[in-house]
């Protein structure tokens, strides 16, 4: 019998196929030539599981967000075995040693020991929220980015942060604030990773370790925390004078924002945009808050750090919970994409420079609304990973040397902080666009990749994944011409101008803002131990403005030096009113009004006032001698627990006499001196609110008490009315400007 006869079978027809031996690398035979027709990924071979994916907590993945939370009624191990007891270790007798076989003890303690991950080197202290971005359709002439189309809704996750402090530091320190937005677009994730200040301390990313080492606590004593008021910071910025522009922004009111909801945001760098016709332009991104840009006073910020270190976190979460959703317009400044990459003499690749809005107006292109708080801080706010290299079609980077370094640094830091290269698979970081990469394995791998050919080109997986052709919309690295040059470690000549824009910022401030800047420099430099460093920084102030230098020098007991002169070719600009925070009126959403009550005289009008404030999207806070209720309205704060810095304005609804616990030996606030009959803690609350330029109001017995304490009805920002409705109306008018700055005369 021939071999062919031996392999034949009377039961098999000629068109039937033999069962293949196991080990086939792909479910379909490969083609001879490289596949060129795009197709979906091949299905998994029939021997591989068809189990539906499950969440980290053991249930089948489901659109319901609760499916990723804890499941069932009973306590279990992390493998799902139910437990009867978790309060006692397994021991050899009630007083005997703990046994090594106690797997529940070992699992519980071991997991606890590994709950912490490395905090961010910078921006460790943060708060975040989910929201939605809606495009206006006004960016079409500049960019083809799909998420900016008219009416297009895109989910977002926004994280705000301080820069220098550790994760456990306070919120209201003087510092730059991070403003990072993750757009989950259907063309891929776009991360706009910016700050509340439009410039940076350095022009080149190679200096980033230097500025952060200088700003962080001194390495020997690990102090001071979350502050720039120390020798190493001022040593660096006074020597590396390109940092002076960012520094004056930090010394301004921008360094101590009232709320994340009241901050501008900036993309810092210049980006390159491309529209549907392939035309390019250069652009800077801006966030404009609906509520305006407002700040704290320095004394207020320091008091808050002790009274409520979570002030900004709480403010953001409370506003969203109460329905006062924070909103911003996203805008762009657009510039011609010329060979020099400059505009009106300003180098667009220098991240220490701005383009005044008067020269290039900000064009609104979309609206951001934050409307949901995170479910879990660690899972979302702590594990979210931003990266300026996360780009989408229509938006590309420029040759800004700081931006170029950030493109590498953000990837690199996540590998350490989030335990490997798969941080993009953590739920908060997962794209909302289909992913078909060729990246495999690594720590934290959560995808279950079928197929055998994660390389290109291939035939075993049918050629999948295919590079997008010209007929398919995809990200394109724009073919930008690079000018010829010599490989060298040098910066353009235009980068040598370190002071013209610092002078622009100073000249754009109102007198009260200038007073605040003088006070900030005086405070910070007074904290420096070395006189040499103070004097060196005074020299930089002399290059900015004579009055600024003289006033700070006087506060420090130093001589004001003479300026040494400007850099040749510096571009001197007119003042930019857009840089000032003061002027205009703004919505009061989420503002808090303290209603100080006397339980002996409060009546039904208290509830009416409470609801009138709430219906105006503000937060009424009843402040009373003790807890409980007053006239049927729950008390939010007692005199002992309240502090003026928690509120945006104060309404005195009565004249509460000293309460039973107003004992200076028990509580220092009760020792506030004064000749009136009010509880001393109320007197202190009024005094602080007055000093911080907040509006004060009263009616009825409260009006008489306010006048008895020395506050006159014609004082700036003081409201004395006959009834509560009139008092609230006038108070709202005063609050609309944020603060009553005209209360205190200025000297500059």
UniProtKB/TrEMBL annotation:
Q: Polar residues bias located where? A: 1-11, 68-79
Catalysed reaction(s)?
A: 2 H2O2 = O2 + 2 H2O
Q: Which Gene3D superfamilies match?
A: 1.20.1370.20, 3.40.50.880, Catalase core domain
Q: Name one GO biological process term.
A: hydrogen peroxide catabolic process
Stored SUPFAM superfamilies: Class I glutamine amidotransferase-like, Heme-dependent catalase-like
Q: Report the active site residues.
A: 123, 195
The source's domain of life comes to Bacteria
PANTHER family tied to this protein: CATALASE, CATALASE-B
The Pro residues compositionally biased stretches are 19-46
The UniProt record gives the binding positions of heme as 120, 159, 208, 406, 410, 417
Q: Give this protein's Gene Ontology molecular function annotations.
A: catalase activity; heme binding; metal ion binding
The family assignment reads: Belongs to the catalase family. HPII subfamily.
Disordered, as annotated region = 1-89
Protein name, entry field: Catalase
The cofactor required is: heme
What is the uppermost EC class here? Answer: oxidoreductase
